Amino acid sequence: MKRFSQLAIPYIVWAALMLILPMALIALYSVTEHGNSIVSFSLTLDHYVKFFTDPDFLLILWRSLVIAVKTTIICLLLGYPVAYFIARSSERLQSILVLCITLPTWINMLVRTYAWIGLLSEGGLIQQILGFFGFKEVELLYTEGAVLLGMVYNFLPFMILQINTSLCKMDHSLLEAAADLGANPLQTFRRVTLPLSLPGVINGITLVFLPAVSSFFIPKLLGGGQYFLIGNVIENQFITVGEWNFGSAISMIMAVIMMLMMMAVRKVEIRNQGGKEE
């Protein structure tokens, strides 16, 4: 047992340097303000007050939450049928379909998002197809729809894979038992399949919502700077404005929102399993 504890030391050191230390520095920056010299600083909550008293920042936060919720709902509505179809397929076909789902993720997300600029731009392939059906003046790029499309495209595989994993682990004898008891396919899905797949649904929601609410390069590329989300604000504060303290405060606010989201998801998962939180 002692030997296994020693093997964990490198991971603990790595976690402390790469995870805990950066978060501690961000938390420190968020409640401090530099003085006249480099080494002097004072504690303050002005950065948090500035965020919550500025209606523009609150509007951007609300917009980010809304588009993250929209992305999550669309991914769930599209991902569940796909995951269900994969889980009901033969083992060989399952491997092929999972490969097709994961294959785009082998390419860098930034490159994949850049590809949508060419597809959605004026004279692009999608606009040409819409023009063939009479929709010639439709503006696709640099809109909320383009940002939402980029979000769904990039995060949909996470939803599909999580739900598919839960469905594949399900005991299929339960479906046979439900059919023997006279349940039709819809009743079997509602009372057996859906409840047993909820852990995968919850994990998928978490893996989609958290990156969607803090994404910055998707709205920057597909929104053209006209659709500003909270991730863009944080990037702007660090890179352009140089207000590291205010940017750190916004980052801590988003970290708290994400932790509350994960706690709520955890409680729902425990309630669904009929257990108690340890």
The count of β-strands is: 2
How many separate helices? 13
How do the strands of the widest beta sheet line up side by side? 1-2
The number of distinct structural domains comes to 1
| Broad structural category | mainly alpha
Question: What is the CATH homology-level superfamily?
Answer: MetI-like
**CATH T-level topology:** MetI-like fold
CATH class: Mainly Alpha
- Give the CA-based shape: globular
Share of residues in strands: under 5%
**Main beta sheet:** 2 strands, antiparallel
Instruction: Give the averaged pLDDT, no decimals.
Output: 85
Helix content: over 70%
What is the level-2 CATH architecture name?
A: Orthogonal Bundle
Listing every helix as H and every strand as E from the N terminus to the C terminus, the arrangement reads HHEEHHHHHHHHHHH
N/C terminus separation:
24 Å
Rg for CA atoms = 23 Å
Low-confidence runs of at least 5 consecutive residues = none
What would the keywords be for this entry?
MetI-like fold, 278 residues, two-stranded antiparallel ribbon, 77% helix, mainly alpha
Structure description:
The chain has a two-stranded antiparallel ribbon with strand order 1-2. It is 77% helix and 2% strand. The longest helix has 33 residues. The chain has a single domain, classed as MetI-like fold (Orthogonal Bundle), CATH 1.10.3720. It has 278 residues and is mainly alpha-helical. β1 and β2 form a beta hairpin. The protein is globular, with a radius of gyration of 23 Å. The protein starts with a helix and ends in a 5-residue tail after the last helix.
